[in-house]
Specification:
mainly alpha
């Protein structure tokens, strides 16, 4: 049976609330600009809506940069150790066993070829 770890949602910080509110406003403004583009036949009105959409995109880029200024919460080493202790590598080792033997032989061959290139002295003068 495969167990998945549940990661809780991050707490709602002021920065996350601001980012969500900004995203909602920008999406609403972009929807309004798109509706103007769809229904209008006036080139000036379409151009104005496209300019508005470009401005919305620029604001979204700046909002993303500002949101990235907030440091990400770090997990404590104890939590990280506990999370890795729950994982078992036995299925992975069993799946890789048929591949490991030929790789060990190839590694031995490579090591011997390297020694041969060095003159068998293992890099000593």
């Amino acid at each position: 049976m495969i167990q998945t770890q549940h990661t809780p949602a991050p707490p709602l910080t002021p920065a996350i609330a601001w980012r969500q509110a900004l995203q909602t406003k920008l999406m609403d403004a972009l929807d309004a600009a798109w509706a103007i583009i769809e229904r209008s036949v006036d080139p000036a009105e379409i151009r104005e809506a496209l300019d508005r959409a470009k401005a919305i995109g620029a604001i979204a880029v700046m909002g993303r940069k500002v949101a990235l200024l907030e440091p990400t919460p770090r997990t404590t080493p104890a939590k990280a150790v506990k999370a890795t202790a729950d994982l078992s590598l036995e299925p992975l080792n069993a799946a890789l066993a048929p591949v490991a033997a030929p790789m060990a032989a190839q590694a031995e061959h490579t090591r011997r070829a390297l020694e041969k290139l060095k003159g068998g002295r293992r890099g000593r003068p």
